[in-house]
Amino acid sequence: MKFTLAWLKDHLATDASLAEIVDKLTMIGLEVERVEDRAALLKPYVVASVISAEKHPNADRLRVCMVDTGAGAPVQVVCGAPNARAGMKGVFAPPGAYIPGKDTVLQVGTIRGVESRGMLVSEFELQLSDDHEGIIELPDDAPVGQSYAAYAGLDDPVIEINLTPNRPDCTGVNGIARDLGAALIGDYKPNSPKPVRGRYPCPVKVMIEAADLCPAFALRLVRGVKNGPSPRWMQRRLKAIGLRPINALVDITNYITYDRGRPLHVFDAAKVHGDLVVRRARNGETLLALDGRTYTLDDTVCVIADGKGVESLSGIMGGEATGCSASTTEVLIESALWNELNIAQTGRKLGINSDARYRFERGVDPNFTLPGLELATQMVIDLCGGEPSDIVVAGDPAPKREKVIDFPQSELARLTGLKLPLGDMRRVLEKLGFFVSGQGERVKVAVPSWRPDVHGKADLVEEIVRVIGVDRVPAVPFPRGEQARKPVLTAMQNRTRKAKRTLAARGMTEAVTWSFISKREAVLFGGGSPELALANPIAAELSDMRPSLLPGLIAAAQRNADRGFAHVALFEVGQVFRGDRPQDQLTAAAGLRRGLAKPDGAGRHWSRIAAPVDAFDAKADALAVLGELGAPIRALQVLPGAPSWFHPGRSGTIQLGPKTVIGHFGELHPRVLAELKADGPLAGFEILLEAVPEPRAKATRARPAPEFSPFQPIERDFAFVVDARTQAADIVRAAQNADRKLIAGVTVFDVYSGQGIEPGKKSIAIAVTIQPREKTLTEEEIGALGQRIVAEVAKRTGATLRG
Q1: What is the largest CA-CA distance in the chain?
Q2: Would you say 338 and 324 are in contact if contact means Cβ atoms under 8 Å apart?
Q3: From its phi and psi, is residue 130 left (phi > 0), alpha (psi between -120 and 50) or beta?
Q4: I want to staple 375 with a disulfide (CB 3.0 to 4.6 A). Which of 118, 193, 614, 742 is the partner?
């Protein structure tokens, strides 16, 4: 929501500075996102007169101008604008001025041998428009030496607030001023519109066929109008908040939308055929809207139609056919109430974000339906002339029954610890528009029609506290009691944190991607079932709940590569969806490496050959996470092969037993990358945190910490010849089982097949680390352990010791 300071002061009498107003807005819950103070930016720029403009002695397209800036002697300026000439008035920038359009600070310079001590600027250079064909030309009566910002009305700061969806009353400047008035930074100016007497019956009638979508509709005709440009003050304000002035009739409706939070619409009465009907659209009907796009409608959309067809999308956007132009002499002004949910659904379905939709889907003040029409009528008469008709009303715009809350004075202290006298509470509520009756401990509070977000006592407490000041709430420590503190985080929250920390420590960067992906991507990664398709997707490419985190990471990695960051390592811990039941929503941890983003950080370097990421990098990432989560690493099985989106020969599955699949890792399948328009190499993993078993509970009795063994570890190498289909993991597991007490670790350091090994066989070499615990082992004991290792491996895999 944007507005200017002068606009705010139309509704708020205040002497507070801009900084004080901005600070107070944030303190009362209307958080200020940005303040654009062009007066400060354009302070050096002044209105100037060109005394002479002579041809540059060394350039055909340049002129040497003598410029009167109103500050003394004329200033010499070299100018290349084709419209620079003697006698004109323009905008002068002195040395030291910041030129926003060029993002530079102006200096005294020499251009083709002639000194230039300033600049005559264009609108593009001041970022007022895209016009850079010539310098700004001002009227002959523009006062030389005056600040250009003040002369052009650009000295009115623009404030932008981040408005929460529950505050529809502050979608207009009037509501913001009311809040500030309650906060005592100024006096709110009540400004209820006065009724405008109609001179004749309105010739156009209204019928509501869809009463569930349109509770009320008011209309009146103003004939004999003269439509032209809106006044300069209105155009300045609309431009300041980013709106393009069109003509007086349209600008009036846009102005009231922002001034009072009340969207309206105007029809050129000469283009309306017969009476108006509010109804559901018929399937297949189309409308050429004011944004120049043609929309195909269905029976969920509420429309305003005449005898010829659809003329407007109710509460969202008007139609091109009945739009007002310079030739409009009779105008129909409409003020209506619409179903908030239907407006939101229609806007989302058609992809239209308009100022009207923004307000109607949040809920406008129902009691301002007729006053809003009266206000628009008066402004049309004031700016365009004309004679108004009586108002035609369909439905019931009468005030709804007031919501009354029984409010105990003690509720404020109970919920916040803040103690205020009833008089202060009453003052705050009444300045916000609430009506308070009663004097005792309990009072009756009537909620105004523009505050649909207030439902009960807690809401009233919130209103009082945000206006009085959250900083006044006393700080009170929680009673700790004598019991030991219970864990705050759940087991899954702890797992999520550990997974994130582990992957970040391995040099990966956390990414947060959409929980929605396209249908095509969902099918590629094992999803795409009908129950996971969104009923109202925010975009066509975000239509399904994701079955995997990898599509989002692949897209993020490709976007980085497209911008020059080819070697990235990303991870995400988030939700994946396997069905529409609660138990089908799982938490996954996934990582993706691209290019040369190895876990050890070894990229391109002169001392080594750079190698791209591979399946073993992804495997190492997955096992690092599982180890941090307390998974039984020795009991895990790593089997070849993974789901279809992984490379069939360069991937694996991590299991715990034959049934519990914990996750997958490997290089991504080239076909999948081609479908996603992503370039490889890419290697990744994905594990399900719910599938990782909880670590065994530790004994509650305190035990002394285990000491490191004082004895030297011993390493022995073994090479086995096995069938080509035998997995290395089976040999590692068999060697570990030979003596779990003495064997501290087993690693594979070589796999060989070829000359010296018979066909259908391969050699797998392992290194076994033996860690004595109680004494130094003798050669005989070491040899006996080696024999047990060979026997165990032979028994479990059929291996023979390589000679």
Answers
A1: 119
A2: no
A3: alpha
A4: 193
Return the bridge partners of 158, or none: 4, 36
For the segment 421-434, what is each residue's pLDDT rounded down to a tens digit?
A: 888 999 999 999 99
Provide CB contacts within 8 A for 799, sequence distance 6+.
720, 721, 722, 726, 731, 764, 793
In the chain, the amino acid numbered 210 is A
Measured between alpha carbons, how far is 158 from 2 in angstroms, rounded to an integer? 7
Tell me the mean pLDDT per 10 residues along the chain, length 803. Answer: 94 94 94 88 92 92 93 92 93 93 91 93 86 89 91 88 92 96 94 94 95 95 94 90 92 96 95 95 94 94 94 94 94 95 93 94 93 96 95 84 89 90 92 91 92 94 93 84 80 94 95 94 92 86 93 95 92 94 93 87 71 92 93 86 92 90 95 92 94 73 61 92 90 90 90 90 93 90 92 92 84
Return d(Cα 196, Cα 192) in angstroms, integer.
12
Q: How high is the pLDDT of residue 399?
A: 61
Domains and CATH numbers, the chain: 2-37+157-188 (3.30.56.10), 40-152 (2.40.50.140), 206-395 (3.50.40.10), 403-471 (3.30.56.10), 491-691 (3.30.930.10), 714-801 (3.30.70.380)
- CB atoms < 10 A from the CB of 96, how many? 11
| Sheet strand arrangement including 800-801 | 743-752, 761-770, 714-723, 800-801
**CB contact at 8 A, 142 and 47:** yes
Q: What is the DSSP string of 578-589?
A: SSSSGGGEEEEE
Strand partners, 605: 608
Helix (H) or strand (E) holding 379: helix 369-384
Give per-residue pLDDT as tens, 479-520: 877 877 777 888 899 999 999 999 999 999 999 999 999 999
> Hey, what are 82's tokens?
């084709």
